[in-house]
Amino acid sequence: xxxxxxxxxxxxxxxxxxxxxxxxxxxxxxxxxxxxxxxxxxxxxxxxxxxxxxxxxxxxxxxxxxxxxxxxxxxxxxxxxxxxxxxxxxxxxxxxxxxxxxxxxxxxxxxxxxxxxxxxxxxxxxxxxxxxxxxxxxxxxxxxxxxxxxxxxxxxxxxxxxxxxxxxxxxxxxxxxxxxxxxxxxxxxxxxxxxxxxxxxxxxxxxxxxxxxxxxxxxxxxxxxxxxxxxxxxxxxxxxxxxxxxxxxxxxxxxxxxxxxxxxxxxxxxxxxxxxxxxxxxxxxxxxxxxxxxxxxxxxxxxxxxxxxxxxxxxxxxxxxxxxxxxxxxxxxxxxxxxxxxxxxxxxxxxxxxxxxxxxxxxxxxxxxxxxxxxxxxxxxxxxxxxxxxxxxxxxxxxxxxxxxxxxxxxxxxxxxxxxxxxxxxxxxxxxxxxxxxxxxxxxxxxxxxxxxxxxxxxxxxxxxxxxxxxxxxxxxxxxxxxxxxxxxxxxxxxxxxxxxxxxxxxxxxxxxxxxxxxxxxxxxxxxx
Length: 529
Known about the structure:
Layout lengths: L1 H17 L4 H14 L6 H20 L3 H4 L2 H25 L12 H10 L5 H10 L6 H24 L18 H11 L4 H19 L4 H12 L5 H24 L6 H11 L2 H14 L4 H10 L6 H11 L6 H22 L1 H13 L20 E4 L3 H14 L3 E5 L2 H9 L4 E3 L5 H6 L7 E4 L4 H13 L5 E6 L2 H9 L4 E4 H19 L8
Parallel strand pairs: 1-2, 1-4, 2-3, 4-5, 5-6
């Protein structure tokens, strides 16, 4: 049976990729296809799915700053959005009882409120996958979205405690001791080195956090998230996250397959699920309105709201609990599963062109912005710089170090991750916070004296978007970028990039040139200038 899971998942994912769509849509389709051909969910597949979610929450914690959760635009906005959504959607669902649809017949106000609450959550799996694939986890809107997801996880824990009667034991107070255990955790990470022991250490911490929290009556997934947050300040947190990336993505395939294997729906269930998905735009509008109310810029509110506009796998947990308690009929578990799946497709398709959408709508959206700017939303200027280097990851830092002796203060780095920027500034480097894909930034940053912009980013699509936005903003200087493959070089040149460095080819040529220089110094070979 396991080979059939792999086969269907591979065919579904590859098919969607060929169509330019996220593979997760194909994984969802593969689950329903398996269901159609008579396959059933199993303990093995569910274990893989649960492990994928646990690892995902642990890796989210590795990138999370607790201070981000304490901001009103995160925790107050999350609570306000959920409250308004539940009130509005309860009324909508209860109103559907008068349409004569069989599954809504006889539904009480309490049942409608329970269903509205189940649909109020956004999918952690879907949102994180989209943000990771687009390289936007550390951006302003990415961090806002992740913060909202964490707050929703906290609300989920409170719900489970109240509804399921699962009260944490007195030993739960001992969990606060984990804060004081950080030096021990750090020492273990340091001892693990950089090889195969590092991802094994990540598995140990993620699953250990899960089982420790579950043991004292607290949601285990929250334990994995919190343990990741405790490790986040460590210097090897980013390396640990990368070592777990492939494992997490592979196990999450099991999650998407398991959704489709819940049950085989009839046509009326499909129609009701699609009807519920009509509420997804309402979720977006509520997020956008809430975020701008808390003084976020229109672009941040738009992108955060768009990526959060889906239903969550937690809705399945709520529905399952309601069915087991006799509050809802068993068919609603299938309907919610379908609605969750369809909402994943909606978000994946809409967010694929999110930046282009904002460019078209920005003048209309900006009228809803507050005149007061939050500290994080004030643009920094590259004073005195003639060269900007966008992206201060490993490649960007290497390029920065190579250019610094020649350019000095005329070189300025730009990165979307405030924590990374802060560390680089502490090292004495001239670096500012900025998201290269932010069209508003290029309208507000003075590029008159900038002669060259270097784009050292891992995503070719991101580089192409930035190049287009620079041209729209009337930037007159040169643009250079990096790529890994020849087809990527061609794509970037076609979007208006002046020069593209092939990372592998240029690295090989650079190594050869430096090697010959070493030999030349010994008088063995002559290197042409």
